[in-house]
Please model this.
Amino acid sequence: MADLLGGWKLLILLVIVLLIFGATRLPALARALGQSRNAFKSEMKKGEQEGDGTTKSTPADSTDVTSPDDISKS
Model:
C-alpha cells in the first residue's frame, strides 16, 4: 500500500490531469493549491497558539450529575 502512487501510476495520473485541465490552467491551479495550503497552515498555527494559552477543563464533579433515581422522584 506504500506504493499507491508510485512509478507509472503517478505518470499516468499526471497525463490525465494535463488532458483534463490543459497546460494553460495548470500553473493557476498549482498557485491556488499552494495558497490554500498556506492559508490552512497559518490557521492551524493560530489554533495551536490559542490552545496553548487556555487552561485544561476539569471533569464535572459527581454531585453535579443528576442520577436517574432523582429524576423519577420528581
DSSP finds three helices and no strands in the chain. The radius of gyration is 26 Å.
